[in-house]
Each structure stands twice: as C-alpha cells, then as structure tokens.
Amino acid sequence: MLTIAGSAIQRLEQFLHKQHVLFSAVCVLSLVGQCMGIGEVIWAVNCGGSSHTDVQGIRYQADPQKIGQASDYGKSLLIQRVVPQDQILYQTERYHMSTFGYDVPLSKDGDYVIVLKFSEVWFTAPNRKVFDVVLNGEHTIVSELDIYSRVGRGVAHDEIVAFSVKGGKLRVNGETSQIDGKLTVEFIKGDYDNPKVNAIYVMKGTLDEVPKLPALPGDSSREEVEEEEEEEVVPGKTPKSRRPSGPKVKDPYAADDTSTMLLPVFVAIGAFIPLLFCLCKL
C-alpha cells in the first residue's frame, strides 16, 4: 500500500513539475510578446553617457555630441520610477549654457514617435531649470519644461511626442514644415539655468508601441482637479464634457489579457485531477 502511495506521489510530483515548466514558458513568451510589440527604433542616444541596451532591448549609442557638457552627477542618486538596469539613462545627461540639439537621420515616410528622457538630479525646488524643446526648428513640442515641478528630484520623466513624415513634409501637433533627410531636436535656453536632456530615441510606430513609465501616485486625481479648474462655467449654459489632453496612456500594471488571468486556474485544475484520480485508486 505504501509502495503504491509513494508511486502515486512521485507521478504527481512529476506532473506538477511539468505544469510549472509550462507555466514558466508561458510567462517568458508573454514577456517576449511585449518586447516584440515595440516599434522600430531607428535612432537612440544615451546623452552624456556611454552605450546602453535597456530592458526593452532598445540600444542606445554613446553620446556623439560635442556641444555642451556631459555629466554623470546623477549617478550619486537612485532614480525612482525606473528599473535599476535602466537608471543610467536618467543618471547621465548633456546640458549647455545656450541652446543646443541633436540631428536625427530621417528620410523615410511614416508615423514616428520621439521619446525624450529627463530627470532632475541637481535642483531641489521648482522654477530653477525651465526650458522648451523644439522640433525641426519650428515646432515647440514641450513648453516650459520644469522637471522638478513635474516629478521632483531623482525621478524619471519621459516626454513622448508623435509626428509623421510624408513627401518631404513633417507634421506634428497639427503643424507642418519641410524636412530634408534629418530631424533636428533642440533644447532652448530660457531664463532659468541651462537646458538639458538625459536620453533620446526616435521610433517608427505609434504611441501605443512606446513603453511607458509607471504612473506616479496621485497623477490621476491631480489631472482631474486641473481639468475642473480649467473648465469655464458660463451662467445658464451646461458645461461641455472635456477630453483630457495628450494620448491615452495604458496602465502598465493592468492585465487586459483574460486568457493570462485564467491560466493559473487551468493549471490548478490540471494538478488536482491526477491527485483525485490517485486518491480514488488508493
């Protein structure tokens, strides 16, 4: 009897091991699927730093820019809102006492997204470093950026802007200009300290294909308050519903795939049936 029970337990352990391997494989395939969902990154640079490949597989080249000053002062901080492997993208930076920028080779038509990475590693108060970002010498894509005011000190912050190129024309935020084989992104010197950037990449694709940073605590409630304050109330007129500005960002922690949610249930059932069968034989 004990021999039969021991054999049944051994078979059950083998079965559970196979189920564990299967479940692990499914998890790996899920992660690979997420990485494959990223658009085609055509240019990326770790500003002020050396080459780096991030957790999404994006390969950043070492900074080729000679204008301005490269700095790794941010290495003295642990950057929040980003995994440890990719903190280096927000710890190194390039700044300049005047306007400076980068030229991105860009000749093919299509839909694109530019991702600008920032973190404030020096100032400990708002209104100390404020600047604009301009695309193609004409289009202000980020206005009066105050990194500390947005997220605080030592916190990752991304500015993500979609644009398109067709027939030698650049189109961004409803504006159009000529483009000739390259895209210029400039960081404009303002009245407060020096413009800077930590990393940049340009991707051929859409906003939905861009990996997003996790949301900061309280972001949604703060946006709702700002929208309510901006809504103009006219006596005798019903206020119109407002759409939030900017692209809709998916919750990186939301599980939309119901099949993935049901998988542990199937695994549990699969493990229980052989156990029940063995117990019945006993």
Would you mind describing this structure in some detail?
- The protein is of the alpha+beta class and 282 residues long.
- It folds into two domains: 1-36; 40-226, Galactose-binding lectin (Jelly Rolls, Sandwich).
- Helices cover 28% and strands 30% of the residues.
- It is built from five helices and 15 strands.
- It has helices at 2-36, 88-91, 147-151, 219-230, 258-281, and strands at 40-46, 52-53, 59-62, 69-71, 93-95, 100-105, 110-118, 130-135, 139-145, 157-166, 169-172, 175-178, 182-192, 196-197, 199-204.
- An eight-stranded mixed beta sheet has the order 2-3-1-15-7-10-11-12. Strands 6-13-8-9 form a four-stranded antiparallel beta sheet.
- The longest helix is centred in the N-terminal third of the chain and has 35 residues, at 2-36.
- The chain is globular, with a radius of gyration of 25 Å.
- Residues 19-36, 221-227 and 237-267 have low confidence and may be disordered.
